[in-house]
Amino acid sequence: xxxxxxxxxxxxxxxxxxxxxxxxxxxxxxxxxxxxxxxxxxxxxxxxxxxxxxxxxxxxxxxxxxxxxxxxxxxxxxxxxxxxxxxxxxxxxxxxxxxxxxxxxxxxxxxxxxxxxxxxxxxxxxxxxxxxxxxxxxxxxxxxxxxxxxxxxxxxxxxxxxxxxxxxxxxxxxxxxxxxxxxxxxxxxxxxxxxxxxxxxxxxxxxxxxxxxxxxxxxxxxxxxxxxxxxxxxxxxxxxxxxxxxxxxxxxxxxxxxxxxxxxxxxxxxxxxxxxxxxxxxxxxxxxxxxxxxxxxxxxxxxxxxxxxxxxxxxxxxxxxxxxxxxxxxxxxxxxxxxxxxxxxxxxxxxxxxxxxxxxxxxxxxx
Amino acid sequence: xxxxxxxxxxxxxxxxxxxxxxxxxxxxxxxxxxxxxxxxxxxxxxxxxxxxxxxxxxxxxxxxxxxxxxxxxxxxxxxxxxxxxxxxxxxxxxxxxxxxxxxxxxxxxxxxxxxxxxxxxxxxxxxxxxxxxxxxxxxxxxxxxxxxxxxxxxxxxxxxxxxxxxxxxxxxxxxxxxxxxxxxxxxxxxxxxxxxxxxxxxxxxxxxxxxxxxxxxxxxxxxxxxxxxxxxxxxxxxxxxxxxxxxxxxxxxxxxxxxxxxxxxxxxxxxxxxxxxxxxxxxxxxxxxxxxxxxxxxxxxxxxxxxxxxxxxxxxxxxxxxxxxxxxxxxxxxxxxxxxxxxxxxxxxxxxxxxxxxxxxxxxxxxxxxxxxxxxxxxxxxxxxxxxxxxxxxxxxxxxxxxxxxxxxxxxxxxxxxxxxxxxxxxxxxxxxxxxxxxxxxxxxxxxxxxxxxxxxxxxxxxxxxxxxxxxxxxxxxxxxxxxxxxxxxxxxxxxxxxxxxxxxxxxxxxxxxxxxxxxxxxxxxxxxxxxxxxxxxxxxxxxxxxxxxxxxxxxxxxxxxxxxxxxxxxxxxxxxxxxxxxxxxxxxxxxxxxxxxxxxxxxxxxxxxxxxxxxxxxxxxxxxxxxxxxxxxxxxxxxxxxxxxxxxxxxxxxxxxxxxxxxxxxxxxxxxxxxxxxxxxxxxxxxxxxxxxxxxxxxxxxxxxxxxxxxxxxxxxxxxxxxxxx
Lengths: 367, 727
Known about the structure:
- The complex is a heterodimer of chains A (367) and B (727).
- Chain A is an alpha/beta fold and 367 residues long.
- Chain A contains 16 helices and eleven strands.
- In chain A, 48% of the residues lie in helices and 12% in strands.
- In chain A, a hairpin with a 5-residue loop joins strand 1 and strand 2.
- In chain B, 58% of the residues lie in helices and 7% in strands.
- Chain B is elongated, with a radius of gyration of 36 Å.
- The interface between A and B is medium-sized, with 21 and 22 residues.
């Protein structure tokens, strides 16, 4: 307990969605007079508004959490409302986890019921484990049982998030099947079962670009509504995403760096987009694509790095020198192939843009 | 006065309701008045939508206007209602005789969707759903609904839209039809027209009759004809005589068919989606369909929409049934949202005689026109299949590209034919146009070929026409073409044209048997052509520039292939003599001369030593190096084995290249490069290694053969070749 109180005095690195946007959620709940599905904190309409942003009748400004097609968020909310599990698919950096967290925060008021999928995830983390000391002393009792987030969500009727579902071993994934279709979790040791309350549902995320993962079985796939989150459509949209996220991270890391000038962000995003699509923005020149994913998330991390460099070692304004190192690192994942691709891109595209001379020079120094 | 949305299922339902309520004795429908001729057949059971009423200029069927009608078109509903209730139908619009006279087949200028605009203003992205909510569900009487629409449209028009003279003329023409109908004593008249025109057609808004007459005076005129043609769902999606097309005819049809069972709209649609997916081997369990239905309902609720629309269904399909993938959705889009229906037209319809003949042939050959592309492989040795091939060939000659020749697969036989077959509704127009040539497919094709033969610019075209006469089985036309060919040959002095005619004629002669055609006359013409070409060959090869020489070389090549194909000594003899004469003449352009020498060498007429001597002479220091390179190019075309296996040729070429001085070498380089780059990479590599070690070329044969080990292999080869093996 003492430990807890000491950590509370300094601010957490990253607040949960429901606490960071608590004001917006309260305002929405107050303005929301539409019917809510059982156990939902907000109506589907209010959840959609929370995700996509808007202005409430009382003048409260709701910030946009997801920049992208409205259609996608409507599908996600509708899915949850039909008590079908939702699977968010997409390449890294398409805001899968972000959307999942905000959905959970808006629907259930908590985004902390989460299971992180890894190669080492065991069935206990989806079902339940045991407190072995109590198990030995008291025998199998309810008190000796350690419920997983899934089990707790079933009991409380809230949303549970499964991150990186495809990273879990296939046999662990299969434990989900009965939970999703029967909505019950049997506990044979106690000769009982946990029945999911209304409001229980699952939001899973998975990466459809990764190699060496465990693809979902068709039995499991059938139990999910699949929503593919695309990469941002336009340069402007992607720049806006990077800017808001870098600003938010910068705030929590207390970086004093100046991000108001968008030019550096839009340059980085443009480079990422051009390398990803294999052609320059004006569609005149073909470029090779490197093996790296070059997602929006990586653009965000490049900019955050740049901001940190500028804040601690520079004059606080992010310049070409500050982003060059992490930019090169993000593009060149394979030291041989990607380096050639990157150098070709520098020589054929970056060099020919007079206003990019500083970036060209900074990158050349590194390679 | 029923202002509708063209191709709107909601409008169609309302029209049905209004007609039942009104019980008019005259129904006036928007459309060229010439279409009145088609009303008699409108009630026919065999007229299955989608069909289109086609109005075309009699002399130029290309200039045509289509009025497509789907099952859910209000116009169609009105037409069928009138047929069922004994009411008179009249079409009202600017007569096509004027409309088609001044423009090239192009139709009305107003491709606007005023009801769509109204719906958009009300916040709906699908006009049909707006109609559903605003018109269907609000009023007990359809008539009241239409009155409201008319009032709304009057507002739209007051905004200044629809002031162009074209529109004014059209509406004047519509009013004229209405006046005539009233004068003839009609008691109740129902007018089904685009909502936009409704206010102008209401009796209260009529200007004086003279005003309209003045507008319609002095318009140009052409003679037009009308007919029904089968239409397809895909074509409904395109713009047409009734303004903008519909994007989702399949969905509209579904809406219209299930209109009286609203509870079935969503589950019915998704069940059909699932069936299509299953037909393609994709998972779509009934349980998943249930989830998809719930998903679509939930989406509509989240989007605050009163009912599930196509966009919700598409989203639900993608998310629940397709696992987020867009690929299966494209299939659904094509098969269901648009649909692959082909309409049907009864036999009693005034079809053009040619179209009737084609329909008969299609029935007897069991070759049904279908909009789904497919590949048909025909075995020409079987009579029924040959007849199909003949029909497709004839249609192709007539410009109706129902079938396109496809890849016959890995078969070198000449008895097989593959066709990519797909029917397009536009063929109706092509057929009408082809109808100018004759009344049956056979007659028309023969007439067309005869015309082509008369207009053929050269002998080669005639030669290929002869071939097409055979494939399309046109004995009558064959005579005409051969006559023309014989006559042209007699007057033709250009040996090049004669040479180019040889190959198609020879193919005809050679393969005509498969189709049981009489090719004896072709043989006669072929004989004349070959002899005349052989006689004129040497003179024709003299003094050619580079381009002419290149053309001559390919003509000689083709002719040689042709002569070889026929295997007739009466032809091969003179041809060979002509080639020998050309080959021996040093003054002939290198490209031709080199090629001819090679042909003779391959044919065994010229021996290798003589060929080497000629090569050496052409490439010697005294001769012009560029001419030598041309000769070499002609001589070496084909495969590289000659250079690889003849001991004498390669050193000559090698020595020659080494000798030429630097400036000449620069001129030669591109020519030589072109020559050698045609060889396969393997052959080029071998040539290179042969040149690097000049002495080794002769040591190819291994010194000691192990005959015992080789014997088994040799026996096996002999067995394969069917030879007796002496053991």
